[in-house]
Design a protein that fits this description.
Length: 149
């Protein structure tokens, strides 16, 4: 019996590897986004802590030096938050790009799998035709052979 071999199996294998690489890239981008969002949340918490401290400094005995240092810390934290917001947006864009790439690679892989399935179906049909022809020949031979006897 004939064995089915898909002529483009090497391409399908490459598509599997590309999909695996794209999944890895996507997971790394997602991890980076989570990391950047955690940094941003930490900066927001630090800013809130500085603002609480600022209220305490104003309500107690006024120490202008401490108030000034606290204001500088708040402003520095605001700048860091703005920078981190940009980093989060960059990470989001990278994640979206990795998602689109993964989707494209998966579509290509699925297309090749469908082509392989169709090629296999054609192979089966051809094999069935050959078997049917062989059976017809055998029946015809047997029938003709029986008539001769």
């Amino acid at each position: 019996m004939a064995k089915f071999t898909y002529r483009m199996q090497n391409i399908l294998d490459i598509k599997y590897k590309l999909e695996s690489q794209a999944k890895t890239s996507f997971s790394l981008a997602a991890a980076k986004l989570n990391q950047e969002e955690e940094k941003l949340e930490g900066l927001h918490q630090r800013r809130r802590a500085y603002e609480v401290r600022a209220k305490e400094l104003v309500s107690d005995k006024l120490n202008f030096q401490d108030i000034k240092v606290n204001r500088i810390a708040i402003e520095t934290t605001k700048g860091a938050i703005q920078n981190q917001v940009v980093a989060v947006h960059v990470a989001e864009r990278n994640l979206e790009s990795a998602r689109r790439h993964l989707q494209d690679v998966m579509t290509e892989r699925k297309t090749h799998e469908i082509l392989k399935e169709k090629a296999f179906e054609e192979f089966k049909k051809e094999l069935e035709k050959e078997e049917s022809k062989a059976v017809d020949e055998l029946v015809s031979f047997t029938h003709n052979h029986d008539k001769e006897e």
